Protein backbone atom coordinates (compact mmCIF):
# COMPACT_ATOMS: atom_id res chain seq x y z
CA UNK A 1 0.00 0.00 0.00
CA UNK A 2 1.05 3.56 -0.61
CA UNK A 3 2.90 5.29 2.21
CA UNK A 4 3.46 8.95 3.06
CA UNK A 5 6.11 9.98 5.58
CA UNK A 6 6.68 13.67 6.33
CA UNK A 7 9.90 15.01 7.87
CA UNK A 8 11.37 18.48 8.49
CA UNK A 9 13.97 19.39 5.85
CA UNK A 10 16.64 19.79 8.54
CA UNK A 11 15.69 16.84 10.80
CA UNK A 12 15.08 13.66 8.78
CA UNK A 13 14.89 11.60 11.98
CA UNK A 14 11.79 13.52 13.17
CA UNK A 15 8.78 11.83 11.62
CA UNK A 16 5.99 14.43 11.63
CA UNK A 17 3.50 12.12 9.95
CA UNK A 18 3.45 8.56 8.64
CA UNK A 19 0.29 7.24 7.05
CA UNK A 20 -0.98 4.61 4.64
CA UNK A 21 -4.45 6.14 4.48
CA UNK A 22 -4.94 6.77 0.74
CA UNK A 23 -7.68 9.38 1.17
CA UNK A 24 -5.60 11.29 3.72
CA UNK A 25 -2.54 11.13 1.47
CA UNK A 26 -4.57 12.47 -1.47
CA UNK A 27 -5.99 15.36 0.60
CA UNK A 28 -2.63 16.31 2.06
CA UNK A 29 -0.84 16.21 -1.27
CA UNK A 30 -3.62 18.18 -2.94
CA UNK A 31 -2.98 21.02 -0.48
CA UNK A 32 0.57 21.07 -1.86
CA UNK A 33 -0.63 21.14 -5.47
CA UNK A 34 0.32 17.50 -5.98
CA UNK A 35 -2.26 15.16 -7.53
CA UNK A 36 -2.40 11.63 -6.18
CA UNK A 37 -4.84 9.20 -7.74
CA UNK A 38 -5.46 5.52 -8.24
CA UNK A 39 -6.24 3.49 -11.38
CA UNK A 40 -7.54 -0.06 -11.34
CA UNK A 41 -4.79 -2.46 -12.30
CA UNK A 42 -5.43 -4.00 -15.72
CA UNK A 43 -2.26 -5.92 -16.50
CA UNK A 44 0.31 -8.23 -14.97
CA UNK A 45 3.78 -6.97 -15.84
CA UNK A 46 6.53 -9.50 -16.59
CA UNK A 47 9.89 -9.31 -18.35
CA UNK A 48 8.03 -10.24 -21.56
CA UNK A 49 5.51 -7.39 -21.37
CA UNK A 50 6.18 -4.90 -24.14
CA UNK A 51 5.73 -1.17 -23.79
CA UNK A 52 2.90 -1.24 -26.35
CA UNK A 53 1.05 -4.02 -24.48
CA UNK A 54 1.27 -2.09 -21.24
CA UNK A 55 0.11 1.15 -22.83
CA UNK A 56 -2.77 -0.67 -24.54
CA UNK A 57 -3.93 -2.05 -21.17
CA UNK A 58 -4.43 1.48 -19.86
CA UNK A 59 -5.43 3.12 -23.15
CA UNK A 60 -8.72 4.62 -21.84
CA UNK A 61 -7.12 6.17 -18.74
CA UNK A 62 -4.10 7.37 -20.71
CA UNK A 63 -6.22 9.04 -23.39
CA UNK A 64 -8.41 10.77 -20.79
CA UNK A 65 -5.40 12.12 -18.88
CA UNK A 66 -3.66 13.24 -22.05
CA UNK A 67 -6.74 15.10 -23.21
CA UNK A 68 -7.28 16.70 -19.80
CA UNK A 69 -3.70 17.93 -19.29
CA UNK A 70 -2.43 18.31 -22.86
CA UNK A 71 0.18 15.59 -22.43
CA UNK A 72 1.49 14.66 -25.86
CA UNK A 73 4.25 12.16 -25.09
CA UNK A 74 3.76 8.85 -23.27
CA UNK A 75 6.36 6.18 -22.57
CA UNK A 76 7.22 3.41 -20.11
CA UNK A 77 10.13 3.36 -17.66
CA UNK A 78 10.61 -0.23 -16.54
CA UNK A 79 13.12 -2.18 -14.50
CA UNK A 80 12.49 -5.73 -13.30
CA UNK A 81 14.93 -7.91 -11.34
CA UNK A 82 17.07 -10.31 -13.36
CA UNK A 83 19.88 -12.64 -12.38
CA UNK A 84 23.53 -11.73 -12.83
CA UNK A 85 26.06 -8.98 -12.21
CA UNK A 86 25.11 -7.09 -15.38
CA UNK A 87 21.69 -6.42 -13.96
CA UNK A 88 23.16 -5.32 -10.60
CA UNK A 89 25.26 -2.78 -12.47
CA UNK A 90 22.34 -1.60 -14.56
CA UNK A 91 20.13 -1.31 -11.49
CA UNK A 92 22.70 0.72 -9.55
CA UNK A 93 23.17 3.06 -12.52
CA UNK A 94 19.43 3.51 -13.00
CA UNK A 95 18.95 4.13 -9.27
CA UNK A 96 21.54 6.88 -9.24
CA UNK A 97 19.84 8.80 -12.07
CA UNK A 98 17.26 10.63 -9.96
CA UNK A 99 18.65 10.03 -6.46
CA UNK A 100 19.76 13.64 -5.95
CA UNK A 101 17.55 16.71 -5.66
CA UNK A 102 16.30 18.12 -8.95
CA UNK A 103 13.33 19.77 -10.63
CA UNK A 104 11.73 19.49 -14.04
CA UNK A 105 10.53 22.16 -16.45
CA UNK A 106 7.16 20.39 -16.70
CA UNK A 107 4.87 18.44 -14.40
CA UNK A 108 6.16 14.99 -13.42
CA UNK A 109 3.23 12.69 -14.18
CA UNK A 110 3.77 8.99 -13.46
CA UNK A 111 1.47 5.97 -13.20
CA UNK A 112 2.87 2.91 -11.44
CA UNK A 113 1.57 -0.14 -13.33
CA UNK A 114 3.87 -2.41 -11.33
CA UNK A 115 6.24 -2.35 -8.39
CA UNK A 116 7.39 0.40 -6.07
CA UNK A 117 9.31 3.68 -6.03
CA UNK A 118 9.57 6.65 -3.68
CA UNK A 119 9.30 10.33 -4.59
CA UNK A 120 10.69 12.73 -2.01
CA UNK A 121 9.02 16.11 -2.42
CA UNK A 122 10.91 19.02 -0.86
CA UNK A 123 8.26 21.67 -0.26
CA UNK A 124 8.22 24.63 2.14
CA UNK A 125 10.68 23.33 4.73
CA UNK A 126 9.49 19.73 4.72
CA UNK A 127 10.23 16.52 2.86
CA UNK A 128 7.23 14.41 1.85
CA UNK A 129 8.34 10.85 1.06
CA UNK A 130 5.61 9.30 -1.10
CA UNK A 131 6.10 5.57 -1.65
CA UNK A 132 4.11 4.74 -4.78
CA UNK A 133 2.86 1.26 -5.50
CA UNK A 134 1.06 -0.42 -8.38
CA UNK A 135 -2.10 1.52 -9.20
CA UNK A 136 -0.81 4.90 -8.02
CA UNK A 137 -0.84 8.00 -10.19
CA UNK A 138 1.25 10.96 -9.06
CA UNK A 139 1.44 14.38 -10.68
CA UNK A 140 4.08 16.70 -9.25
CA UNK A 141 3.97 20.34 -10.43
CA UNK A 142 6.78 21.67 -12.63
CA UNK A 143 9.58 23.23 -10.62
CA UNK A 144 8.94 21.20 -7.45
CA UNK A 145 12.23 20.16 -5.80
CA UNK A 146 12.34 16.38 -5.44
CA UNK A 147 14.33 13.20 -5.80
CA UNK A 148 13.37 9.58 -6.49
CA UNK A 149 14.56 6.26 -5.10
CA UNK A 150 13.78 2.97 -6.83
CA UNK A 151 15.55 1.01 -4.05
CA UNK A 152 18.52 -1.38 -4.04
CA UNK A 153 16.62 -4.01 -6.08
CA UNK A 154 14.51 -1.89 -8.42
CA UNK A 155 11.22 -3.36 -9.54
CA UNK A 156 8.73 -1.10 -11.25
CA UNK A 157 6.97 -0.25 -14.49
CA UNK A 158 5.86 3.37 -14.69
CA UNK A 159 3.92 5.06 -17.46
CA UNK A 160 5.36 8.55 -17.92
CA UNK A 161 3.54 11.52 -19.44
CA UNK A 162 5.18 14.60 -20.94
CA UNK A 163 4.32 17.71 -22.89
CA UNK A 164 7.73 17.73 -24.60
CA UNK A 165 10.04 14.86 -25.63
CA UNK A 166 12.70 16.04 -23.18
CA UNK A 167 10.23 16.61 -20.32
CA UNK A 168 11.97 13.92 -18.24
CA UNK A 169 15.28 15.83 -18.07
CA UNK A 170 16.16 16.95 -14.54
CA UNK A 171 17.69 20.27 -13.48
CA UNK A 172 19.86 19.23 -10.51
CA UNK A 173 20.28 21.64 -7.59
CA UNK A 174 23.63 20.23 -6.29
CA UNK A 175 22.09 20.32 -2.79
CA UNK A 176 23.11 17.07 -0.99
CA UNK A 177 19.86 17.05 1.04
CA UNK A 178 18.77 13.66 -0.33
CA UNK A 179 21.72 11.89 1.27
CA UNK A 180 20.41 12.61 4.77
CA UNK A 181 16.98 11.07 4.27
CA UNK A 182 15.92 7.43 4.67
CA UNK A 183 16.06 5.54 1.38
CA UNK A 184 13.12 3.49 0.10
CA UNK A 185 14.21 0.27 1.84
CA UNK A 186 14.60 2.05 5.22
CA UNK A 187 11.24 3.74 4.86
CA UNK A 188 9.53 0.42 4.25
CA UNK A 189 11.52 -1.25 7.05
CA UNK A 190 9.95 1.30 9.42
CA UNK A 191 6.82 -0.87 9.36
CA UNK A 192 8.53 -3.81 10.98
C1 LIG B 1 9.11 6.44 -11.92
S1 LIG B 1 9.67 7.10 -13.42
C2 LIG B 1 11.40 7.39 -13.19
C3 LIG B 1 11.72 8.52 -12.29
C4 LIG B 1 11.61 9.85 -12.94
O1 LIG B 1 11.27 9.96 -14.08
C5 LIG B 1 11.95 11.01 -12.20
O2 LIG B 1 11.96 12.19 -12.80
C6 LIG B 1 12.21 10.99 -10.89
O3 LIG B 1 12.42 12.13 -10.25
FE1 LIG C 1 12.09 13.77 -11.27
NI1 LIG D 1 -5.01 -0.53 -5.12
Automatic annotation (TrEMBL):
PANTHER family assigned: ACIREDUCTONE DIOXYGENASE
Site (May play a role in transmitting local conformational changes) residue list: 107
Site residues by UniProt (May play a role in metal incorporation in vivo): 101
Binding site for Fe(2+): 102, 104, 108, 146
Residue sites binding Ni(2+) per the record: 102, 104, 108, 146
Cofactor(s) needed: Ni(2+); Fe(2+)
EC number(s) per entry: 1.13.11.54, 1.13.11.53
SUPFAM superfamilies: RmlC-like cupins
Cofactor: record remark: Binds 1 nickel ion per monomer. Binds 1 Fe(2+) cation per monomer.
Family note: Belongs to the acireductone dioxygenase (ARD) family.
InterPro entries per the UniProt record, alphabetical: ARD (IPR004313), ARD_bac (IPR023956), RmlC-like_jellyroll (IPR014710), RmlC_Cupin_sf (IPR011051)
Subunit structure, as described in the record: Monomer.
Keywords: Amino-acid biosynthesis, Dioxygenase, Iron, Metal-binding, Methionine biosynthesis, Nickel, Oxidoreductase
Site feature location: Important to generate the dianion: 110
GO-annotated biological processes: L-methionine salvage from methylthioadenosine; L-methionine salvage from S-adenosylmethionine
Pathway: Amino-acid biosynthesis; L-methionine biosynthesis via salvage pathway; L-methionine from S-methyl-5-thio-alpha-D-ribose 1-phosphate: step 5/6
Function description: Catalyzes 2 different reactions between oxygene and the acireductone 1,2-dihydroxy-3-keto-5-methylthiopentene (DHK-MTPene) depending upon the metal bound in the active site. Fe-containing acireductone dioxygenase (Fe-ARD) produces formate and 2-keto-4-methylthiobutyrate (KMTB), the alpha-ketoacid precursor of methionine in the methionine recycle pathway. Ni-containing acireductone dioxygenase (Ni-ARD) produces methylthiopropionate, carbon monoxide and formate, and does not lie on the methionine recycle pathway.
Enzyme class: oxidoreductase
Domain of life, per lineage: Bacteria
Catalytic activity: 1,2-dihydroxy-5-(methylsulfanyl)pent-1-en-3-one + O2 = 3-(methylsulfanyl)propanoate + CO + formate + 2 H(+); 1,2-dihydroxy-5-(methylsulfanyl)pent-1-en-3-one + O2 = 4-methylsulfanyl-2-oxobutanoate + formate + 2 H(+)
Pfam families the record matches: ARD
Protein name as catalogued: Acireductone dioxygenase
Listed GO MF terms: acireductone dioxygenase (Ni2+-requiring) activity; acireductone dioxygenase [iron(II)-requiring] activity; iron ion binding; nickel cation binding
